[in-house]
# Entry
Amino acid sequence: MTQVLGLLLAGGEGRRMGGLDKGQLLLQGRPLAQHVLQRLQPQVQQLLISANRHLPQYAALGAPVQTDAPAWQGMGPLAALATLAGQAAPGPAPDYLQLVPCDTPHLPADLVAQLLQRLQQDPSLELVYPSTKEGVQPACLLAQWSIVASVPGYLTQGGRSLRGWIATRRAAVVPFAAAADFANANDPQTLARLEQH
# Structure
């Protein structure tokens, strides 16, 4: 059986939220991260949360919590991947890694299935990520597990951006029809709009 490890990215500094921990902000009375996990859980075989504060609250959501290794702290979402590359996954060795940000509560129910289909159709690809009419969603990428090992080297050489790392790999986009499925609450105004919907 194909093993997909879902990694929820909740380790950021929340600068556009005034330094608040986005994954712990409430939407309809529940933390944003909980909404995302409920969307992702049926689609993957294993779950892991990357967080650097409020660890007991994240652990209460029911998945193992990983903090960024000291060498990678402050290096954005790639810090979570570099940390993961340096240790064994929590369960059976995964075939693929699915990233999701903690502030996208309406992720499509077929996110993993669509990305996996594209990746398996073309064996030359190393990773794929969604695109909508509003742009690309690199933080929702699905990658071959084997390429996660390249992240520490990319960071060591001074690379910092997720898009920059993607540019070093064989990647493709997968079109998704509903841009609203990827709406993310990365500032107070967007969170308020999501609350209204």
Remarks:
- The chain has one domain: 4-196.
- The domain at 4-196 is CATH 3.90.550.10 (Spore Coat Polysaccharide Biosynthesis Protein SpsA; Chain A).
- The chain has a mean pLDDT of 91.
- The beta strands are 4-10, 26-27, 30-31, 46-51, 65-66, 96-101, 127-132, 135-136, 142-144, 171-175.
